[in-house]
Amino acid sequence: MSEKILVVDDDPLMLQTLRLRLGDEGYLVQTAPDGFAALQSCDGDDFDLIICDVKMPGIDGLETLRRIRKTRPLVKSILITGFAETEAPIQAIRLGVSDYLFKPFEDEQFIHRVRQVLRELRLERENRQLLEELQAQNRKLQIQVKVFRDRENRQFDFENMVGGAPQMSDLFQKVRQLAQTRSAVLLLGESGTGKELVARAIHNAGPRSRECFVAINCSALSRELLESELFGHRKGAFTGADSDHRGLLEEASGGTVLLDEIGDMPLELQARLLRVLEQGTLRRVGENTERRIDVRILSATNIDLAQRMAEGTFRQDLYYRLNTITLRIPSLRERPEDIPRLAEHFLKRFSAEQGKRLAGFSAEARLWMQRYRWPGNVRELRNAVERAVIFAEEGAPVAAESLAAEEFRPREAAVPAAEPPSDQNLGQRVALFERRLIAEALEKAQGQITQAARLLGISRTNLHNKLAKHRIGIREP
Fold first, then answer.
1. In what order do the strands lie in the sheet with 296-301?
2. Which of 201, 281, 359, 464 is 20 to 30 A from 179, alpha carbon to alpha carbon?
């Protein structure tokens, strides 16, 4: 396909000359007599190359290109400038202009520069396409490997779920009941609470346990790749579709599919998913044939779907099909009595994996775990214990410092919520209170220094000084 070029010049003769010359080379050419007309043209059309004069009334060529690149950052550009304009080439380089020509220039020189810039554009596009295809193939391989591995993975059986809090006892009872049904289940809970673990437990405790369990993150893939991975495609449906492909919904027929982060599924795919739920059929991308499948759909999210529906980014009819049953997974903060039980479970597991004998947790470590807020929930606790086991000394108890170290808390600078000792003076009590306020602000801001400073009503520099003063470690995401 011929490249599209926009020529911008206030000289009608130059404009016509360049348009005709580029047209002779087979390019699609559009012209604009000034910068404002060029901006309007770019609002309604995509160009591969913009050739722009510097000296023009209204806004000059540099400002025109600067504004265009705000919305078209990948567009190529050639700047035309006079010999006397020695500053223009320097500014052009800073702006990212592809090339520039000094007036007057030869016809052959002009065409050579245009060809060279467009050749660079084609190479960049080919490289981007190859990179996207490699990334897509890598993601596809990871997803498919996960499907087949989960057929034999039994570490997610119901018996392996740990928790004795009343909320968890109620959850376990509901899981047992739901495992024997075909109903759609919507799992709600913060990140790291174990939504996927609950979904696997529902699958493994039910009649579909001998079939595969597939978990796919709807926010991790582009719309096109997610559509292909879920529904499959026929050969030739799009560039790179070299063969027929069974989607994950077909692959899991007879088993269970967990659609994680369902709130981030694009609207176009929500309609296709609704058809699967209502009719039990799907069409591969590029096909008109309906294929019948038997798959149980579970979904999970940590966002407010009611708000997404109000914003018009999530279908109401799909929401009501997905949440026949809603299970809310409590955060670790809501069931602190489970923290020691979970910590011991992870300690036993990772000690065996590392071949270490450890003397449990120190008293300080147990106290710290009970007081820490665990914003990453069970996942964060699991990671903290695993890393602590790796660095623990043989035969020694796990110390509080190894659990509370900065590298184990990348988004959180938590401070144990303890009452100040009665023998502290006013200054010490004020410092402790300030330390707690900073920790709470950092938690709400998820470790973002600028946001935490705004919540506290102080400057970013002031907050950095207070972090150093109180020795609060924080790694910004």
1. 213-217, 256-260, 296-301, 185-188, 325-328
2. 281
